[in-house]
């Protein structure tokens, strides 16, 4: 293993042949960049290597010049097939890499081509018959190529594989899948050189092993933090913002953010404005549209044509700015960028470095970025991340070790490669990939048995062979990707007949009705009609300034514990000075030497901490957790990041719920866990659980709690699809999560679903260690009898300021229409004989039973036959008693409030208790009643994975 400091080369280009050196002179490359100087010599010598260097320092040429040189210098017969693969995580990067490599290919007489899911059949056939020297492709397309007869022959000549943006793949299942794909390629072509490229890697040794199968490699690392500068700013509201707020129909503070970003864009030639969600991108983009600014939108739910159009217009200088999400992180060529704005904390150090690294896209130039924040938590988090980025303190890659659905997928892939293959050879091949080195033989055989029972392959026990079955081919090509399938609707502009983007099924079901308006591409659209069969929404553009911001499925970016911990340090440092009588601006000035910001921004962020100290309340830090409660809310203030807090939250909800016999709802962020508790629970219950729970039992408690969670059922369905198990159980009928869980509980499918939830959402070992530290007194646990300023601050800091909290009239109307058209079961609890299913709009103001005339009518979900059975059961068990009690609460509401109760109970995630609370608000305005319902539905959507 060669350390970066030992990788030398005074003039790296001398390691290359004459033909490539001549091309370098022609291209104007006279002096190598630092990554080229240090990496080209070992790469030219044929070594495997991981090259980590800031964007814009010539990483592509660093990797490809030695590869192109090896191709040029090789014998003609060695170039019969594909000599090199360049693997990127995005199709858009394929296009860019092809354009960047075309010049070198033409100059060196090396054929370069691209292949991905959109490549035409004609072009694919041409590549199979006459393979290019260099093929740019994606991980998923490599999977398909490995099974084609002609392409396997072409791939047998591969001598080099370059994996671009390797950090992006290392933390994803599709990356784990790629590692086995590379082993399948090695079995076909023999050993080949592996080169990984990235701007940011927090654990180079681990990612190098991931890339090479732990076969020895060089690490060449140029610190990204040495080439970046940041400024963190919370905009001050000005008079101009108050005028702007009226123009944009928004709040003054929101207007100040829009104005601050607009001014930054105007002060620079070309600016990327990164946001964390597509919703925020749309909301911000619509503001710039209203101001007629030359700033456009770019995110993954816009159509390919729209994205290419804005990329080209930005590159040509027609646009001054692009509002974008992570789709623009990974080096898509949009020309020179001279500044990056990050709106809101970027959540992770690696993400900030990756994004701001897009600026200063010239050799050895420093990249500049501004982080615009919106709350105290947001500011502190951004300060911590900016400091860590400049210091190069990047998060380690979170590799999916032993993901069993990936093993299942790749076993089928190996069978596709060979038709029949020995189980032993397949096991050895899969476990040669670094993420699967610890998969034992028994687990492997359990997976094979599961695949066999799902008819995806045949097992010849006598000869220990795995063979193709009737379902092998269909499964494999339907599961080339490990990315879970998401149901989406295509959105078409009826005036131009072109596609503008996509919407998630959940948004369409909840909000999309003919006549409703929404924002996409930063513009307003009204829905003409929805074609469910074609999964298509037809729209026309409108001038109406109001509209719902769509929701898209996507995981929230989790804040790591090391970032949240530094936020705790900032609070603690400030609190000590406030306790000594320090004035807020003076305290703020002390932070300026450590963090890249201004006095006013820090001073504003320290206000909740100052108020906490003034009230004599404990300040939560990494060494002091604070529990507070009021009414039915308990908050644990814990600056330990999303995953630890998620783990703590689920554990506490399960154990406190067990004590009280009632469900406990949770909502989590990086600094606090908020619980909605039954009246019988108190802060004391939470204190006792934290102080007495055996840390060694955390994992067991969580797995037990997970069995009742929607998150496990959802993940189980996705994993089951990758095992080919859904068809086996589902047939043509909908198969509920509870039944699926019961059917798969003792299988590797269930084991993988639990592993994935633990890996993605939780941090069991870290939480167990935190419990130990609480119980030994290393971490103090204090309580407050009232809500604290820092505890309350999370309510506002978690909100996307640009996304309106109150729905506009068109959305309220859409909610009304949707609920009125929903169906409910009406069941008479007096005679229990009468039961009917009807639309809400057809329910009478005061429902009564036509059989016996009773008004004690329960309103149930249309699929809730279990409750009907429970009500009619002569000798109900404990679960049926619970359902029966729920039905009687529902009937009591309907008897007292009639059709209004039916409307509330028909809403998604609203049970009798919540419906009673909504009705109890006594809204005189009907729109306010529906707005309360909508807020509860949104709350349910945010927290449903934590409820039994």
UniProtKB/TrEMBL annotation:
The keyword Transmembrane helix does not apply. It comes from the Archaea. GO terms for biological process: DNA repair. InterPro entries: ATP-dep_Helicase (IPR052511), DEAD/DEAH_box_helicase_dom (IPR011545), Helicase_ATP-bd (IPR014001), Helicase_C-like (IPR001650), Lhr-like (IPR017170), Lhr-like_DEAD/DEAH_assoc (IPR013701), Lhr_WH_dom (IPR045628), P-loop_NTPase (IPR027417). Residues 40-219 form the Helicase ATP-binding domain. Residues 357-376 are annotated as: Disordered. Pfam families: DEAD, DEAD_assoc, Helicase_C, WHD_Lhr. Residues 367-376 have a biased composition (Polar residues). GO terms for molecular function: ATP binding; ATP hydrolysis activity; catalytic activity, acting on DNA; DNA binding; helicase activity. Residues 260-412 form the Helicase C-terminal domain. Keywords: ATP-binding, DNA damage, DNA repair, DNA-binding, Helicase, Hydrolase, Isomerase, Nucleotide-binding. Belongs to the Lhr helicase family. Lhr-Core subfamily. This is ATP-dependent helicase Lhr and Lhr-like helicase.
């Amino acid at each position: 293993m060669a350390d970066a400091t030992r990788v030398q080369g005074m003039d790296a280009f001398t390691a290359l042949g004459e033909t490539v050196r001549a091309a370098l002179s022609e291209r104007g490359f006279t002096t190598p960049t630092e990554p080229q100087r240090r990496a080209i010599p070992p790469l030219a010598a044929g070594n495997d290597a991981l090259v980590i260097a800031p964007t814009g320092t010539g990483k592509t040429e660093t990797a490809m010049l030695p590869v192109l040189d090896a191709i040029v210098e090789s014998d003609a017969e060695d170039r019969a097939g594909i000599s090199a693969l360049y693997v990127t995580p995005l199709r858009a990067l394929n296009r860019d890499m092809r354009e960047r490599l075309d010049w070198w290919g033409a100059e060196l007489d090396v054929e370069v081509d691209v292949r991905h899911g959109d490549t035409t059949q004609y072009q694919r056939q041409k590549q199979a018959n006459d393979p290019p020297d260099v093929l740019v492709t994606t991980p998923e397309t490599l999977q398909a190529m490995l099974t084609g007869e002609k392409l396997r022959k072409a791939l047998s000549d591969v001598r080099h594989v370059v994996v671009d943006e390797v950090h992006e793949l290392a933390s994803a299942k599709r990356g784990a899948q790629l590692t086995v794909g590379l082993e399948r390629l090695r079995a076909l072509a023999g050993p080949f050189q592996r080169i990984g490229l990235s701007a940011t890697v927090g654990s180079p040794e681990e990612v190098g092993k991931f890339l090479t199968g732990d076969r020895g490699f060089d690490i060449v690392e140029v610190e990204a933090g040495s080439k970046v500068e940041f400024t963190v700013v919370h905009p001050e509201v000005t008079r101009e913002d108050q005028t702007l707020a009226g123009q944009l129909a928004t709040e003054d503070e929101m207007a100040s953010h829009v104005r601050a970003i607009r001014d930054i864009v105007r002060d620079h030639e070309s600016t990327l404005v990164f946001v964390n969600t597509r919703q925020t991108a749309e909301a911000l983009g619509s503001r710039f549209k209203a101001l007629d600014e030359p700033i456009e939108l770019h995110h993954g739910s816009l159509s390919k044509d729209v994205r290419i159009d804005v990329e080209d217009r930005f590159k040509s200088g027609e646009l001054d700015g692009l509002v974008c999400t992570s789709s623009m992180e990974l080096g898509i060529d949009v020309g020179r960028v001279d500044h990056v704005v990050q709106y809101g904390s970027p959540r992770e150090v690696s993400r900030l470095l990756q994004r701001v690294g897009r600026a200063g896209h010239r050799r050895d130039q420093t990249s500049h970025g501004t982080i615009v924040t919106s709350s105290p938590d947001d500011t502190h988090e951004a300060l911590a991340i900016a400091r860590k980025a400049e210091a190069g303190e990047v998060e380690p890659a979170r590799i999916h070790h032993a993901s069993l659905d990936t093993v299942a997928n790749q076993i089928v892939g190996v069978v596709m490669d060979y038709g029949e293959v020995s189980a032993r050879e397949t096991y050895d091949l899969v476990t040669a990939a670094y993420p699967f080195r610890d998969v034992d033989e028994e687990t492997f055989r359990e997976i094979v048995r599961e695949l066999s029972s799902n008819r995806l392959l045949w097992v010849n026990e006598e000869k220990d062979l795995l063979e193709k079955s009737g379902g092998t081919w269909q499964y494999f090509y339907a599961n080339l990707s490990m990315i879970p399938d998401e149901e989406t609707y295509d959105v078409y502009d009826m005036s131009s007949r072109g596609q503008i983007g996509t919407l998630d099924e959940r948004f369409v079901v909840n909000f999309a009705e003919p006549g409703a308006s929404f924002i996409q591409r930063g513009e307003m659209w009204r829905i003409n009609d929805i074609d469910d069969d074609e999964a298509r929404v037809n729209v026309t553009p409108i001038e109406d300034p109001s509209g719902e911001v769509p929701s898209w499925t996507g995981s929230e970016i989790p804040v790591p514990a090391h970032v949240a911990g530094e936020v705790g340090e900032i609070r603690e440092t400030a609190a000590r000075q406030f306790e000594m009588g320090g004035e807020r601006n003076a305290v703020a000035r002390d932070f300026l030497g450590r963090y890249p910001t201004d006095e006013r921004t820090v001073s504003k962020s320290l206000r909740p901490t100052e108020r906490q100290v003034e009230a004599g309340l404990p300040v939560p830090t990494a060494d002091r957790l604070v529990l507070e409660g009021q009414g039915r809310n308990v908050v644990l203030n814990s600056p330990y990041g999303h995953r630890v807090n998620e783990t703590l939250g689920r554990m506490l909800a399960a154990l406190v719920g067990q004590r009280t016999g009632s469900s406990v709802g949770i909502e989590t962020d990086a600094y606090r866990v908020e619980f909605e508790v039954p009246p019988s629970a108190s802060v004391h219950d939470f204190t006792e659980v934290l102080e007495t729970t055996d840390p060694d039992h955390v994992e067991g408690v969580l797995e037990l709690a997970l069995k009742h969670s929607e998150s496990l059922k959802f993940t189980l369905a996705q994993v089951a699809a990758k095992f080919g198990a859904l068809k086996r159980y589902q047939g043509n009928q909908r198969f509920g999560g509870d039944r699926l869980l019961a059917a798969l509980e003792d299988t590797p499918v269930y084991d993988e679903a639990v592993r994935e939830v633990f890996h993605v959402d939780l941090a069991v070992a870290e939480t167990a260690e935190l419990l130990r530290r609480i119980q030994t007194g290393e971490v103090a646990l204090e309580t407050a009898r009232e809500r604290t300023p820092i505890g309350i601050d999370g309510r506002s800091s978690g909100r996307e300021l640009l996304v309106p909290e109150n729905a506009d009239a068109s959305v309220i109307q859409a909610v009304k229409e949707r609920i009125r058209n929903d169906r409910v079961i009406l069941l008479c609890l007096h005679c229990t004989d009468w039961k009917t299913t009807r639309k809400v709009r057809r329910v009478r103001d005061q429902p009564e039973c036509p059989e016996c005339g009773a008004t004690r009518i329960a309103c149930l979900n249309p699929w809730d036959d279990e409750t009907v059975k429970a009500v009619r059961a002569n000798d109900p068990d404990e679960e049926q008693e619970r359902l029966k009690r729920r039905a009687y609460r529902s009937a009591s509401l309907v008897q007292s409030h009639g059709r209004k109760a039916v409307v509330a109970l028909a809403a998604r995630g609203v049970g009798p208790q919540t419906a009673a609370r909504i009705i109890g608000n006594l809204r005189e305005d009907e729109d306010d009643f529906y707005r309360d319902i909508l807020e509860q539905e949104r709350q349910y959507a945010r927290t449903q994975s934590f409820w039994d």
